[in-house]
Write a structure and sequence with these properties.
With about 325 residues, the protein is an alpha/beta fold. The protein folds into 2 domains: about 90 residues, no CATH class; about 240 residues, LmbE-like (Rossmann fold, 3-Layer(aba) Sandwich), CATH 3.40.50.10320. It has 10 helices and 7 strands. A 7-stranded mixed beta sheet has the order 3-2-1-4-5-7-6, sandwiched between helices. Strand 1, helix 3 and strand 2 form a beta-alpha-beta unit. Helix 3 crosses helix 8, helix 4 runs antiparallel to helix 8 and helix 6 packs across helix 7. The longest helix has 22 residues. The chain is globular, with a radius of gyration of 20 Å. The two termini are about 25 Å apart.
Length: about 325
């Protein structure tokens, strides 16, 4: 019961703080804590699922997927970009190498504010195009794998989304990212593995499942995400919100590619063995996670009441039109 009360107290403090415990950066102009953001904070307090999305560079990520997970399902989502993109192109100016890395870091920060997710990096060097994952891993060294393990143990995700899982061609950084992610997940659960970076609260952590992103087909075989559903809070689809945020990758010329058919393809999540995951696992309600814990169940009912009052202002009182976590 003491543990149960501790969880309740933390949830209450987080909600009363207006979500500040979950926010890394100040909101972009026009996206601060108004009524829609307050409703989102209530929804987020009712979902316990943590998702770590791992990719190689800024602009690799699916903004639509991240937006749906964070703003549609209200999961606690972190994007881990292995590099800062300093080896990429720059269509805006002469900055290259470290200077470009600084610019692309800020671009990704701006994008993640739109997605509604946290952001972290490893110490992987973006050295330009790599032909093979072996070349990439040789240059990156063991520290990148160690950094991924550290982030997994620190964030403690229920689900890891491997953006480049199952990819065996193309950029060596992409392939290496897809290979290192499951390795890191296995090491994160191994009590005998010690990360070089000390972390007092980062004990072994076993992630429940690893999912790959399937977006290269008009008919993906995994669980197809409803990215084109309209958010009643913002009046646009999760895909549209994600694409608008993705446009922040300006040095990569993304503003000129926002009408690409690739960005409008169906996107699915799939297990490494090709199966569709259980959609309910993407957003587990706090009362379901802590079933039988009376203070948590009471808090969940109170949050539900607060959400009903908020949604009444947003959509004229129709709670049925507001997306709820998949219970």
């Amino acid at each position: 019961m003491n543990f149960c009360r501790s969880v309740f107290a933390f949830s209450a403090i987080t909600l009363l703080a207006g979500g500040s415990l979950l926010a890394q950066f100040r909101a972009a102009p026009g996206t601060g804590f108004g009524l829609p953001e307050t409703v989102e904070a209530v929804d987020s307090a009712r979902v316990t699922t943590r998702i770590l999305y791992i990719t190689a560079h800024p602009d690799d990520e699916s903004g639509a997927v991240l937006t749906y997970l964070a703003r549609g399902l209200h999961a606690d989502v972190m994007l881990l970009s292995l590099t800062r993109g300093e080896g990429g192109q720059n269509v805006l100016g002469p900055e290259q190498a470290p200077q470009l890395g600084l610019i692309r870091t800020q671009e990704l920060l701006a994008a993640t504010r739109g997605y509604g997710v946290k952001l972290a990096f490893t110490r992987a060097k973006d050295f330009g195009f790599s032909k093979t994952p072996e070349e990439t891993e040789k240059i990156w060294g063991d520290q990148v794998l160690d950094d991924i393990v550290y982030r997994i143990r620190e964030f403690r995700p229920n689900i890891i989304i491997n953006n480049w899982g199952g990819i065996h061609a193309g950029h060596g950084h992409h392939q290496a990212s897809g290979i290192l992610t499951p390795k890191a997940a296995a090491l994160a659960a191994d009590e005998s593995y010690k990360t070089k970076e000390a972390c007092d609260d980062c004990g072994p952590w076993a992630t429940s499942q690893i999912l790959n992103v399937e977006r290269g087909s008009e008919h993906p075989q995994g669980y197809v995400l409803p990215l084109d559903e309209i958010s009643p809070l913002y009046g646009r689809s999760w895909r549209q919100i994600g694409i608008d945020a993705f446009a922040n990758h300006r040095t990569q010329g993304m503003t000129g590619a926002l009408v690409s058919p690739f960005l409008f393809r169906p996107v699915a999540l799939v297990t490494p063995d090709g199966k569709a995951p259980d959609p309910k696992s993407l957003a587990v309600n706090i009362a379901e996670r802590f079933k039988g814990c009376a203070p948590i169940e009471i808090a969940d009912r109170d949050l539900d009441s607060a959400r009903a009052a908020g949604s009444g202002w947003v959509d004229g009182g129709s709670r049925d039109s507001v997306p709820k976590p998949l219970l």
